[in-house]
Amino acid sequence: MRVKIGMLYSLGGAQAEMEQSILDGALLAVHEINATGGVGGAELRTAVFDDRSQVSLTARGIDHLCRNESVDVVVGGYTSASRVVMIPSIHENRTLLMYPTYFEGEETDPRVFYCGAAPNQYLEDYLSWIAENLGRRVYIVGSDYIYPRVLAEGISRLGGRWEMMTVGAWHAPLGETDFGAVLSDIARTRPAVIICNLVGVDSTTSFYRQFHDAGYTAASLPIAATVTTGIDLAHMPAEVSEGHYMVATYFSGLDSPANPAYRAALYEVRGQRYSHSAQVGAYNAVHALRLAAEQTGSADPDALAAALPGVRFDGSPEGLPFYFRGNHYSAHPTYVGRAVGGDYEVIEEFSPRLPEPWWSEGRQLVVP
Fold first, then answer.
1. Which residues contact 271 (CB under 8 A, 6 or more apart)?
2. Is the pLDDT of residue 302 over 80?
3. Largest Cα–Cα distance in the chain?
4. How far apart are CA 125 and CA 112, in angstroms?
5. Is the pLDDT of residue 263 over 50?
6. Is 84 exposed, middle or buried (CB count within 10 Å of its CB: 0-12, 13-18, 19+)?
7. Regarding beta strands 165-172 and 193-197, do their DSSP bridges make them parallel or antiparallel, or are they unpaired?
């Protein structure tokens, strides 16, 4: 049985470092599968397309992978903008997209499997924790595109449950590095906590550095992030990030059964020192595809789509078996990390919640 996976990531441009690390997670899974006999005894093959951080090239990448490289499915994308652009081409080519990262939800598609967490799996518990531990006067800083905008709306919508008040919101263009105006507004509005939805190393590190240079610390005004990964922390001095917070379904220092071996293999096989949720999502996606292909004995996208909700990957570094529900959303734990010495330590874990596409009352997930 021949199975070929297309990988579509930005390996040049502003998103290159982050998306290379996600590709490394996917390719590690390919290496592990081939080292243990491949799929049904045949080598799992791959083809990679680099859209160079240009959304205008993303749909073209799907066409290339499907028509020129003859891939069966695609594991790829990072920003929500890239996913939205890919979906029409995914349908036109009658393939599947395994989207690896946490995102804003508000979508369901028969040809997309969502391998990262939806907001209802992490945001409600995170806001409750923020209100109890950090404060209720919230200022939201984010990048100006789909995910940060929808998340900001959800924060304002849900925050009233804990008497949270959004005292200001600022959305900057992707790649923005000048945050003087937003820092002035923060000084004016005097929030108790900053919720940071900035995406991209340039914007994130610039904001944290300028925030620190303005005299703020985690003790005086904590940042509670939703996107600031260990890769971002590595680009700033430890004292700049020290004590600030992040929510995620995975942290590199997580004490889970599979994580030490995953981290070691990631470095040994791919030379990658950094691990994070989106990367683990890509890793889990490839392993789930292997299980589905072996169950069906076919690489046909429609057969794989029918099989994927019935498979379970027990080797996820997240600490919870990885599987899809019938709505194509996936199961995840949720943790809060605190930055210490340039990386995150896990300080809180929430009960897993059922993944739902749309904003709704979160229901706890009964782990099988």
1. none
2. yes
3. 64
4. 26
5. yes
6. middle
7. unpaired
Distance between start and end Cα atoms, the chain = 31
Nearest to 74 by CA among 2, 1, 146, 3: 3
Which residue stretches of the chain are H helix? 16-35, 55-63, 80-92, 119-133, 146-159, 180-189, 201-213, 230-234, 238-241, 259-270, 277-296, 301-307
Q: Which amino acid is at 282?
A: A
How far apart are alpha carbons 271 and 63 in whole angstroms?
A: 30
How is residue 301 written in tokens? 């996208």
Whether pTM exceeds 0.85? yes
pLDDT of 366 strictly over 90: no
Q: Mind listing the pLDDT tens digit for each residue in 345-365?
A: 999 999 999 898 887 554 444
DSSP 260-293: HHHHHHHHHHH------HHHHHHHHHHHHHHHHH
pLDDT tens digits for range 145-175: 999 999 999 999 899 999 999 999 999 999 9
Query: Distance between CA 364 and CA 161 in Å, rounded?
Result: 18
Q: What angle do CA 249, 34, 260 make, to 5 degrees?
A: 35
Count of CB atoms situated within 10 Å of the CB of 171: 17
φ, ψ for residue 30, nearest 5 deg:
-60, -45
Cα gap 83→151, rounded to integer Å: 17
